[in-house]
Each structure stands twice: as C-alpha cells, then as structure tokens.
C-alpha cells in the first residue's frame, strides 16, 4: 500500500509498520520512550532496521533486540524481520 500511495522510498517506515502490524495481533506494542523503536508487553525493547543496524541505540538496555531486514538467520540478539510474520 505504501508503494501505491507514493511512499515506497520510506523503507524505515515500511519496516516499522510491518513489525507493528504483525506483532500487535497477539502482543501490546508501545512506542519506545527513551531508546528503541518499540516496547513489547512492557518488557522487551525492539529496534527495527536494516541488516547493518547496530546495537548502539539499545546497547545498555536489558531485554533489547534488533529486528533487521534483509537477514536470513538470527545472529545473537539480532533477528530477521521476517520472523515477526511468523507470529501473526
């Protein structure tokens, strides 16, 4: 839908919308207040980005993860964004 409306160049927004759409069906999703993009069920902090996203923004936060686009496999606490679709 983003591409049809002319927002296809906003890949960060597309990633975040996909993540929230998939996770919010079975979990409470809130915007991250201090660090991270989202907080899931008031416990887990998520930063959404591309495969080169680093832990710089959430490094000192417990229970923080990166959901990264263009990854096939998880590497530590950096998870592929497509896994969010498995929760739906």
String of helices and strands: HEEEEE
- The number of helices is 1
Strand order of the largest sheet: 1-2-3-4-5
Separation of termini? 19 Å
Q: Which term fits the overall shape?
A: globular
| Integer-rounded radius of gyration | 13 Å
Counting helices, strands and paired strands, the structural category is alpha/beta
Helix content: 10-25%
How many strand units?
Answer: 5
Q: Could you give a short account of the major beta sheet?
A: 5 strands, mixed
- Please indicate the percent range of residues in DSSP E strands (runs of 2 or more): 15-25%
Low-pLDDT segments? none
Mean pLDDT across the residues is 93
Features:
15% helix, 88 residues, 1 helix, alpha/beta, 5 strands, five-stranded mixed β-sheet
Give your account of this protein's structure.
The model has no long low-confidence stretch (mean pLDDT 93). It is globular, with a radius of gyration of 13 Å. Strand 2 and strand 3 form a beta hairpin. It is α/β, with parallel strands linked by helices and 88 residues long. Strands 1-2-3-4-5 form a five-stranded mixed β-sheet, with helices on one face. The chain starts with 10 loop residues before the first helix and ends in an 8-residue tail after the last strand.
Question: Quick gist of this model?
Answer:
This protein is 15% helix and 23% strand.
Describe the protein's topology:
Blueprint: H1 11-23, E1 29-31, E2 38-40, E3 44-49, E4 64-68, E5 78-80
């Amino acid at each position: 839908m983003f591409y049809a409306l002319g927002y296809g160049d906003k890949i960060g927004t597309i990633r975040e919308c996909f993540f929230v759409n998939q996770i919010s069906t079975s979990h409470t999703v809130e915007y991250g207040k201090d660090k991270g993009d989202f907080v899931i069920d008031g416990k887990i902090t998520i930063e959404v980005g591309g495969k080169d996203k680093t832990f710089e923004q959430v490094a000192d936060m417990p229970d923080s993860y990166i959901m990264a686009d263009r990854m096939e496999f998880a590497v530590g606490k950096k998870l592929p964004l497509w896994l969010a679709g498995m929760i739906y």
